[in-house]
Amino acid sequence: MGDSMKxxxxxxxxxxxxxxHERPAEDKQGGENNNNADxxxxxxxxxxxxxxxxxxxxxxxxxxxxxxxxxMEIMLLAVVSPEIRCEWRLDDWQVALVSTMVFLGFMLCxxxxxxxxxxxxxxxxVFGGFVWSAYFSLxxxxxxxxxxxxxxxxxxxxxxxxxxxxxxxxTEFIPAKxxxxxLPLATIFWMMGSMLIIILGMLVVPTLGWxxxxxxxxxxxxxxxxxxxxxxxxxxxxxxxxxxxAAMKTLHWIAKMNRASLPPGRLVEPITNERGxxxxxxxxxxxxxxxxxxxxxxxxxxxxYGSVLSSSELLEKNLLCVTNADKEHQVKHRHADGLCYCIxxxxxxxxxxxxxxxxxxxxxxxxxxxxxVFGRKMSLTVLQLLAxxxxxxxxxxxxxxxxxxxxxxxxxLVSMNFNVVYIYTAEVYPTVARSxxxxxxTSFSRIGGMIAPFIAxxxxxxxxxxxxxxxAVACVVCALGNFLLPIETKGRALLQNS
Length: 498
Known about the structure:
It is a single chain. This protein has helices at 3-38, 43-50, 54-87, 92-120, 122-140, 146-163, 166-171, 176-185, 187-208, 210-217, 219-227, 235-240, 244-258, 278-281, 287-317, 327-330, 347-362, 364-373, 375-393, 400-428, 434-458, 464-481; strands at 40-41, 266-267, 334-335, 338-339. It is globular. Helices cover 76% and strands 2% of the residues. The protein has a two-stranded parallel ribbon. Strands 3-4 form a two-stranded antiparallel ribbon. By secondary structure, the protein is mainly alpha-helical. The chain has 22 helices and four strands.
């Protein structure tokens, strides 16, 4: 055999040995790739795998700040009411109609906003709500008459309905075990908004007037419009709409921010055409839940705004220890052209409202403990029964200090109740109808907000106990209804489909 033949034979043997050594490694790597390709995961699994991190801190701050905007627009009514009563010589029912128009706008746009959010995305609705509410709130400061004022405030309420969908967007990014901690803590931002508008009223109204107070109060909305670009569209919405690539892009970005990784495999979720359908809310799976939740939201708003407006009315008209208020008692100031039923807030009145706002976060640790230990349903029951008790306690004639303590505790309880019902609603409905479910609930809540002013501001002048009793009774009935809620959402994953 020649040298060339020997060389070729040796080369062939060596090449075969190399292939035999390399093939198992290649087969193993190929097998791993095939296994990963066969694996799938859902958005829920991705959210839990990513866990809590820097993205959620940013989400908490920016989306929590939307509560500042909402709180300022709602609490503005309590601060402005004495001023517009004086400027336009309004009766009690006309002052109450201002709040009612805001809640009417909220109610009409709440369902529409929820439908659009489920069909076309949460981000668009929340961003549009910021722009809308800021624009019409600014226009309110130029209102030439009472009629224009209530119309423009109704438009503001419509924008705030869109902003409230931010709660759904926020909830869909938070892992299950952190929801009962982070969502109640968002109350801090609501308190900040409430205190900010009261401080503005204290500093600006006596010098520049209520119109400049409203103009300055628009500033947080404008800032949030620019910050909101850092918040992505909900990945849960994207997969339900068939936009899997967009959802993956969002999840990769969140994982990178949190210095975490996604589960191995492909993101797979069924595409649902029936998004934003009211039939899901009233179908066999959710009919009882929806009906009971609508009443719970009605009571949550009815009692919350009842406590806010009752406190401002009691302070403005000095009705703390008066059983039969007459016209003379209501009037502290006489003008040359007749009686003026306006009594501007003094420094002590603003101070009392500020202290009561602190009550909204004072019991947040207790709220978190209730949610984690007893669950959502039992928390609602306990909070509503305690709120009923403190509504009746306000009838007791006491000192200003005693009244402030009672109001502090009452505001804590009704705020906690509102927070829990928000959390329960966002957790109980599936992604395909979560925003619509929230929209329906917030709309029913605004019916409570529309009725509350006529009881807290109109009936209060006739009898304090008659004005406070409906709030207590509504709480007791709602507490009993919570036992019939069929689903407890504590520790449960968010549903994608019904």
